[in-house]
Amino acid sequence: MCNYIYLFIYAGCYPKCPKDTPIFDEENQICVETCISPSSTTTPEPTTSSTPTPTTTTMSTTTTPEPTTSSTPTPTTTTMSTTTTPEPTTSSTPTPTTTTMSTTTTPEPTTSSTPTPTTTTMSTTKTPEPTTSFTSTSTCICICWWSDWFNEYHPGFNGTFYLCGCYMARCRNDCIVEVFPLECPPLQNITCENGKDPVLVYDEYHCCQYYACDCVCEGWGDPHYRTFDGHFYSYQGNCTYVLMEEISPRFNLKIDIESVYCDPVELVSCPRSIIVSYNNLVITLINHNLMGGADLEAFENNKKIPLPYARNGVRVVSSGLNLILTIPLRDANITFGATGFEVSLSYHFFGNNTQGHCGTCNNNQADDCMIPGGILVDDCAVMADYWPASEICTPTAKTTSKPCPVNPDCDLLKSDLFKECHSHQSPENFFLACEYDSCHMSNPAVVCTSLQAYARSCSQLGICIHWRNYTNLCNIECPADKVFNPCGPAEPPTCADIPGENTIKVPTEGCFCPEGSLLFNKESGACVNKCGCLDASGTPREFDEVFVYNCEECICDKASKSVKCPNSKKCPDVNPVSCTEPGFVLVNATDPSDPCCSKQVCNCDVNMCPPMDTKCAVGYAPVLEVPDGKCCPVIKCEPKKVCVHKNVEYEPGTNVHIVDCQECSCTWDMDPKTQFFQIKCELVQCNKKCDPGYEYDDTNFDDCCGKCVQTHCNVNVNGVDHTLKVKSNVNVKFIINVKNGCQVQTVLDYINHNDCQSEKRMDLTFCGGDCASFSRYTEPGLSSCTCCLVTHASNRTVNLSCINGDVVAYSYIHVEECACSRTNCHKAGVGHTLIEDSQRKRSLGLP
């Protein structure tokens, strides 16, 4: 109990407080962790002079409020007797800090042994030495019954027990109760195995302080762990595991981690979510994007929650890069982001009472690899398999290390960039993790996780490292109205902050309002230079600012710090409008100068336009054009990019038949007058070179070019070439065998039919060439003659363009094969035969 140190310890029924708040505060009628010494002085009620009551107790107590001060206390001796003393005698020696409680008993009309109501005056003074004594007249109770409050008693005769307010009590054999201050041992510095700075914590009575190491567990990469006591190991699990739970449940806190395989090539895993169970709440922090930027969300009992969040002693905020969950009553902070997690717990609440992947929090790495049942194993990666959260998890196969070059960005951990932090927190484990990740994961940005984890560890020591600008893999892009800060507050200041309100003290990196501005509130995310109001669209407004929103006149009211819209906006009268142009119709439209008002306008509706004639002459294309200020389009015929001849369009590069014996084509040259492409023609070039025995003949004017006509016969006799004129006689008997030269001949020409012509010259085929024939001088006049004839042909079709603009299909014969066929020879005289055909084939004989 607080406020009074009773000389008498009575049996009775009192409230029973839980272990975490074991002391009952009588003034406020609640259970508390520690007694709070009153700072005010209560003036005693006036007393009247009367006969003293049978029992009067004056208590003068010496208290040392500073738990860290060591002093030798003077025992307080309480003597109990049955004698009645008219006046209490009290003696006290001042102490460095003394709380004196003086009790005056107001007499009752009738004498009674029951204690009377008292008024207590409490004051604090500082004097050199603690000495306290109690004198009392009462019946001695040799068994020091402590209380039925806890249903227990402290049998005296040298039994020592804690009272309250950092005082102890001891029952002596002579039925005297000694009350004396709790003596605190001297402070001793310690070194934390996890590299963190030691902190001062109170003992179970909240009287004495001593150094201890808070519980900080980290995980990052694929993944790597540092236990509460700083032991480093890597574990590639693919399941949900117990990250931390209490060995002896006290505060109903349990933290699980879900790890999943996250690389398409290697069997390495990444933390996907953290599940925090506290009392009746289950909060899940999850990252949906394991291969890139953070995509973070929070869930309460599997239902997505908006951030910031506060309920039942749990708070969750977001910095954009991290989610931060805090339990202020238990001094617990859990940070989770794309690069990993950190669990920070107070040793005061959780020291010597944790197990799981994060190990035991007792500043002793030797027992971190503990499996259920308190059994120790040599390797924490083996231990991790033994902590499945609920389901049966498959044991993880160990990955084999492979030699590979270290990513140069890993060297930043040991460079001068982090030099300030090296003496406080070794980068070695973070460097090993960075080296491992760069060798086993295909995403090169995974090295950022080790860099960020080390930078976060340094920031908790008060050392802020601006490291992201030194690598091209780990850049962070912030919105235009925010700037990046590697050590910003988890809860940035806002206009809605309440003075003295507790905020999350964990430093975190993220995007924050620039200097000179602050968040309007925690929900909006809007940065403002001056505090005021937010309108319904989320736009910041200054106090007393008048504006129009949703066609209402609004003001940011300073008194209520809210937007008020008492009046609707008034609009001027509408002037009548008449629409006379084709296609225009009268409609009501928003006034561009005032979006809250409307006016009458002539609006274009093309469905109201009259019909149009879209036909243009040959060589022209219709183009729709809407003149300025008009609604309905008009047709404009513009020249096409073609050549035009006799009302026929020709594309550039195509042949055009204009006159015989000329080759004409459509060019890309523009005629500036007609805007059509020009047609250019050239005379057909005739080949006038003939073989020996032939001469060029151009006397037939129906053809563009002449032909090679045979005028002589070429004969080789005994190796000597002879040229013989046609129909000339020779005085030598011989036979001329003409070589078989019958074959398919081709000529390039237009196909014409009934004022229609092919668009280009066609390959026209026919049979031509010499065939063998002879006339032998014999009695019966033996002879043989052959002609070059068609043996195989096919029909082909070509489109002919007509003068009237029509295009018709026309079929013609295409010769494909020719051969020499036998025919009858004609007799030219006695004793010899003369053969003549269309190819001038001759067989000459002697007379």
Structure commentary:
This protein is mainly beta and 847 residues long. The chain has seven domains: 1-43 and 52-107 and 116-184, no CATH class; 214-399, Protein Transport Mog1p, Chain A (3-Layer(aba) Sandwich); 401-474, no CATH class; 476-527; 530-564, no CATH class; 643-683; 729-847, Cystine-knot cytokines (Cystine Knot Cytokines, subunit B), CATH 2.10.90.10. The protein is 5% helix and 37% strand. The strands form 21 sheets. Strands 17-16-15-28-27-26-25-24 form an eight-stranded antiparallel β-sheet. The radius of gyration is 57 Å and the shape is elongated. It starts with 22 loop residues before the first strand and ends in a 14-residue tail after the last strand. Mean pLDDT is 77; it is low at 1-14, 37-157, 777-781 and 828-847. This is Mucin-2-like. Residues 215-394 form the VWFD domain. Pfam families: C8, VWD. Residues 37-131 have a biased composition (Low complexity). Residues 36-131 are annotated as: Disordered.
In short:
By secondary structure, the chain is mainly beta.
Q: In the CATH scheme, what's the topology name of the largest domain?
A: Protein Transport Mog1p, Chain A
Structural class: mainly beta
Could you list the spans in which at least 5 consecutive residues all have pLDDT below 50? 1-14, 37-157, 777-781, 828-847
The percentage of residues in β strands lies in 35-45%
The rounded Rg comes to 57 Å
